[in-house]
Design brief:
The chain is an alpha/beta fold and 503 residues long. The protein has helices spanning 2-9, 15-20, 57-67, 81-91, 106-113, 128-131, 135-140, 165-171, 179-191, 215-222, 244-259, 271-279, 292-299, 347-360, 363-370, 391-397, 399-402, 418-430, 445-466, 472-502; strands at 41-49, 69-77, 97-100, 150-153, 159-164, 203-205, 229-231, 237-239, 283-289, 309-312, 326-328, 333-338, 378-380, 385-388, 414-415, 434-436.
Amino acid sequence: MKRRSFRMIALTLGCGLLLSACSGNQSGGSAGEAPAADGKATVTWLNILHTPSPPTETVLNKIEEATNTNIEFSWIPDASKEERLNTSLASDSLADIVTLTILDNSSVRNALKAGVFWEVGPYLDEFPNLAAISPEMRTSASIDGKLYGVPMQKQVARNGVIIRKDWLDKLGLEVPRTTDELMEVAKAFTEQDPDGNGVKDTTGFMDRSDLVYGAFKTLSSYFGTPSVWSVSEDGKVTPEFESEGYIKTMDYMKQLYEGGYINKDFAVTAKTDQQQNFSQGKAGIYVGALFDSKNLLNDARGVQDNMELVLVNDITSTGNESDRAIWSTTNGVGGLLSFPRSEVKDEEELKRVLKFVNDLMSEEVYALMTYGIEGVHYTADEKKAVTITDTSLWEQEVQPLAGSRPKEPGYEIHDANPLKAEADRLIQENTEFAVLNPMFSLESPTFSSQGSELQKIITDATYKYILGKISLDDFKAAVSSWRKAGGDQIIAEYEAAYKAVNG
């Protein structure tokens, strides 16, 4: 009862009590201590909760069986994770496993560099699932060249273009494979009558106020823009907005805006409004996460019942396959599962906890944390295509666990929905063409303290240029202002950090 109660009351405890309750000495012993009466080692886990309430015991019991452990979660709501983690680190009140998703947080980075957590790089190859983590992923998740936890592997590059196939067919258009062809489709969707209602009331793109997760950054990939930063062979660092590709992307967006081929209010449109407008048939091109397609189609039911969607991930500005590219700002790293030295006392304990994480990466446990229990939450066919049978139960017992998966892509079991399955396939294919952020694992103190504020200079100038309110010279003047206000210092710090790691 003590172990079960621990889970259920975690969210209601005060911050200090909640975090101290994670100590491996509270019940059952830590992962490295003698097994509990049931023969299972206990693993305590300070974790992030992305849903309103923690999971019930149903699926947790199955995960414990599969990993031969007793798992004691202490859940921190996502909205308060920064404050709670800072307090936890300051008070040294941790757990065997600590989920760190804010790697740019100064307290987190300082704790990692100060040796609060084990360096696990030398141990990963002893475990089959951990050994499969790519060298690129390990590098991206490292701090000053050292890996202080198991990288949480996310989709490396999930974006692409979603287009109304029924509209393409109506107008006799092919699926676009170049940015010029995409522009022609946007023009046709705007100037012709793709929905056949006799009124010119549609547009090409339906976009939102977001230069990263909206259309801009994906389109910029097609024009060869680096992902956030580029670094030359001699170690010179350059921000993406000083590249030729960034300028070409602004010109492309400006052409869309001036032609009326994109919603006029895109610069102030929220994501929910963007998706709702698309599902209502107001536009035929959506640029964003490819897996959004499933929800877009579901939301169109009863409104646009004839909607058919095609997903495209191979658009280039040149028409050359060799120029395929798609941005990745996090390089597929969703955070770290780190192991404090205060809780995991020695190598023997560390290896037991690493084995637990390795076991979490099995397909059996992935299926539990993603879909739940077969026959209870879902059914699956002979091809391992899954259909959720009780959405409400799934949301209560399974969904809270999804954010805790150490690895998300690359499993055979999959969603039975054809559109979701196609999205997953193309997202996995994107990995081969992903443009990584070379500064992701490096640190610039100035960027950490001023980066967000300085970025507003560039964001504001980018929108103003696209909307025709400033000239290219004005945009370049804004870039100069960014440099003088701290950008030059950020570049110098990143160049020094890059040199320190790469020699």
